[in-house]
Write a structure and sequence with these properties.
The chain is built from 6 helices and 9 strands. It is of the alpha/beta class and about 200 residues long. This is Molybdopterin-guanine dinucleotide biosynthesis protein A.
Length: about 200
Amino acid sequence: MTELPPYAAVVLAGGRAARLGGQPKPQLDVGGRTMLGAVLAAVADAQLRVVVGPPQEVPGNVVLVRERPPGGGPVPALAAGLAAVPDTVDVVAVLAGDLPFLTPQLVAGLRERLTGDGVLVVDDTGRDQLLLGVWRTAVLRVALSGARPHAPLRSVLGPLAVRRHRPVVPPGQAAPWTDCDTPAELAAARATAARGLPDGSSG
């Protein structure tokens, strides 16, 4: 297999989960690790990992930055993350910080499929997962230039040449786009994780 080019990962981990007691959602535990920890593990081979959000616990080799203005939404958060990525890194994974079942295999699959401006995951309902994709760094910088805080990320990425990937989810496994917005979703994810994480490990 052809070796893939180096990449950076920008993980958006801001906001508080009002329906989950106001706790920082990426720091909630699923399967013995935080959801943010699961995402960072899935991109452990990245040349640089950047987490965008309020002060929170991250590994020592992960860069933590804050969007301006704080709480301005995914567009300024992504811009802040990209500002920490060197111009020499041509490819960047853009990920939500609350994907407890994200795997290195899916990230690698997206990198392999990067042909145009970007490639992202489409879920089983046909919805684009805008925070589960891999992009050309330079293209994203141009798309984000001049974008206003609170602008919809969909409108910023809409004009780009995007390839869509529909991963096959094996029976009994959680979909990689699974997030946890409500107590019921969090409980379901924890129950799934208790049966074993997608890579066959536990904890």
